[in-house]
Amino acid sequence: MSSIGFFQTLQIVAESQQNRAVNFLGALFQFAWYAVVAVIVAMIALMLVRFILNYADLNPFSRPVIFVRRLTDPFVNPVRRALMGYGIQANGAPLVVVLLTILVGAFAWMLVSSFLNTLAGCVYSLMSGKPGGIIAFLGYVLYGLLALYSLLIMIRIIFSWGRLDYHNRVMRYLMNATDPILIPLRQIIPPLGMFDISPIVAFIIIWLFQSAIALTLLRGWPLAFFA
User: Fold this and answer.
1) Any long-range contacts for 80-85 (C-beta under 8 Å, 24+ apart)?
2) Could you tell me the CA-to-CA distances from 145 to 3, 29, 57, 138, 151 in Å, in that order?
3) Contact between 93 and 76 (Cβ < 8 Å)
4) What is d(CA 35, CA 22) in angstroms, rounded to the nearest whole number?
5) What is the pTM of this model?
6) What residues are paired with 195 via a beta bridge?
7) Crossing angle between the packed helical segments 93-127 and 133-161, to the nearest 10 degrees
8) Bridge partner residues of 192 (DSSP)
């Protein structure tokens, strides 16, 4: 076998392994999508059953009612307390739980999607055998980290609307992760009345860095593998 044929064989093997790895990540992508949708549908079904049982005049100590309440109370009771803290009637707590489940599911899906697309880009760049693969690998890592950071800022904004403070474990993590960029921006850019625009400026800065990475380190490489 000539040296040219040998290297062509190596390239075919590398491309085959690359395709298998990306296809595996694509299967994980589909599985994650179905899992998120299944959780949302299950929560909607539970809240619907709870609503029906509440207005069906059934014995509150019957087995079906107790079973459904045990499943749903851990989600409904915190929302009910939060609504009462805002002076809002707690009757709509199940509906708020459904809306929050959809919102959290969307955030979870964006996290998984960003991670799998970044991982696919890293695998594709390392196994492609193309010139500049290592540079593209670094570009995919940086691009994915910036997308994740932008998502963390967005989640912090949504959680802050629910009056979560530093004592909450999730909010504490979000604040520790995003304060390094938001606090300096607040010191430079004053709020517009009661509105803090530092997150908007942070989003613009992150977008500019991502655009710079796409135009330099990832020029000629795909930015998304799954949608």
Assistant:
1) 82/162, 82/163, 85/163
2) 40, 18, 52, 11, 10
3) yes
4) 20
5) 0.73
6) 192
7) 170
8) 195
Residue the block writes with tokens 């929302």: 79
Mean pLDDT, the chain cut into blocks of 10 residues (227 residues total): 40 54 85 92 90 75 81 84 77 85 87 87 83 90 92 84 71 89 88 80 93 92 83
Locate tokens 């949708």: which residue?
A: 37
Q: Going by C-beta distance under 8 Å and a sequence separation of 6 or more, which residues neighbour residue 105?
A: 36, 37, 39, 40
CA distance 200 to 211: 17
CB contact set of 150 (below 8 Å; sequence gap of 6+): 202, 203, 206, 207
Structure-block tokens of residue 223: 């930015």
- How many helices, marked H, and strands, marked E, lie in the chain? 6, 0
Q: What are phi and psi of 192, to 5 degrees?
A: -95, 90
Query: Cα(225)–Cα(22) distance, rounded to whole angstroms?
Result: 8
Q: Are 147 and 114 in contact (CB under 8 A)?
A: yes
User: What are the angstrom distances between the C-alpha of 108 and each of 40, 48, 50, 151, 163?
Assistant: 11, 23, 25, 10, 21
DSSP string, 18-48: HHHHHHHHHHHHHHHHHHHHHHHHHHHHHHH
Q: Which helix (H) or strand (E) holds 148?
A: helix 133-161
Q: For residue 81, what are its two tokens?
A: 């307390």
